[in-house]
Amino acid sequence: RGTKRGNKRRVIRCKAAVAWGPGRPLTIEEVQVAPPKTHEVRIKVIATSVCRADWAYLYAAGTGTKLRPFPLVLGHEAAGVVESIGPAVDRFSPGDRVIPLFQPNCGKQDRRCTAETVQRRKDWANAQVGVMADGTSRISCKSQQVYQYLGVASFSQYTVVSDASLAKIRDSVPLDKVCLLGCAVSTGYGAARNVCKVEKGSRCAVFGLGAVGLAAVMGCRAAGAERIIAVDYNPDLFDTARLLGATDCVNPKDHSEPVQRVLTQMTRGGVDYAMECAGSPFFMGAALESTSGGGGTCALVGWTEADAVEAVSVSAETILMGRTLKGTYFGDWEGVEGVEDLLDKYKKKQLKLDEFITHNLQLEQINKAFDYVNCRKSIRTVIRLWEGEATQTPAAL
Description:
Layout: E1 12-18, E2 27-33, E3 40-49, H1 52-59, E4 72-73, E5 77-85, E6 97-100, H2 115-128, E7 139-141, E8 144-148, E9 158-162, E10 166-168, H3 175-178, H4 184-195, E11 203-207, H5 211-222, E12 227-231, H6 238-243, E13 248-250, H7 259-266, E14 273-276, H8 281-289, E15 297-300, H9 308-311, H10 316-320, E16 324-327, H11 336-347, E17 357-362, H12 366-375, E18 380-384
Parallel strand pairs: 4-8, 11-12, 11-14, 12-13, 14-15, 15-16, 17-18
Antiparallel strand pairs: 1-2, 2-7, 3-5, 3-9, 3-18, 5-6, 6-10, 7-8
Helix pairs in contact: 4-5
Protein name: Zgc:77938
Family: Belongs to the zinc-containing alcohol dehydrogenase family.
GO biological process, one term: formaldehyde catabolic process
């Protein structure tokens, strides 16, 4: 029977897309999702999107990315409904609409050494290898433990996450849209607003027009930038970039000179802010060199686990002339509070999300979504994990 904490003692059987090994397509399996433990929440995942990071960990593992344990349930950009809560959870109740976060809600306080932040760092480290705070996963399949990607594992109809990695949705907004706030849009928009702190009337450049880069363009526009130059090798993305605020679009293939020189000529000295959003060592160096000396700021935003430190060539003179180089993770949002702020902006139509979604698929079609990522045929593909009513419930033990 349900209680105010939900069916917290029941193991749920449901469907999930399981990765059994690197380079192998996902398979739809019946999995068992265990009850939540202390400071954990079990959620019913209504919608999730496919991020390039999901693709990279499956198909690029061992070629510059960390090799995570398998079997694994990927997915980290999602929205759902709380099904049950574990002991010591006081911020959530069954029925709450939520967005799981791959970064615990520590924010800037994580820089201070307290008992709580030490625990959060431990939780984060465990999430990187696919387990919860106690070192185990809550998902199993065929009598095996299945690891939870980044502590989320949203390619499952049900999953269990830490209560420190969960944002409550307080307003009536579509879950299959706001799921994008779990990663890409928050990261890119935050890079412009929180990291670079783009100013009104400034000149900006965004390198890489995936969902993160397009969100950075949107953030520059919201900050009042006068000129926003979008850079990508794929001209099919330029219309969307302009829709979100780009004033100019540049394809490096169209120029004989290095792209950074093209941008400095276009802006008569360089941009005030440059954001590298592709995770490309080549673009990282180009972005820094496209900024103006004596005050230009470059932020590295795109995620990569390749050894980019050795791959990026930066002359000492480039920095000594007064440029600033920054890095960011999740757009420097303070976890839950940041997502709540973005939700409010979306509700007020100050933030676009619908324009990022190019495809909608069912869970059984998830490998097609991965193909779209590989071929760059989508900005974001949203996977809807349930057919029919959102209240549908699977068999439970």
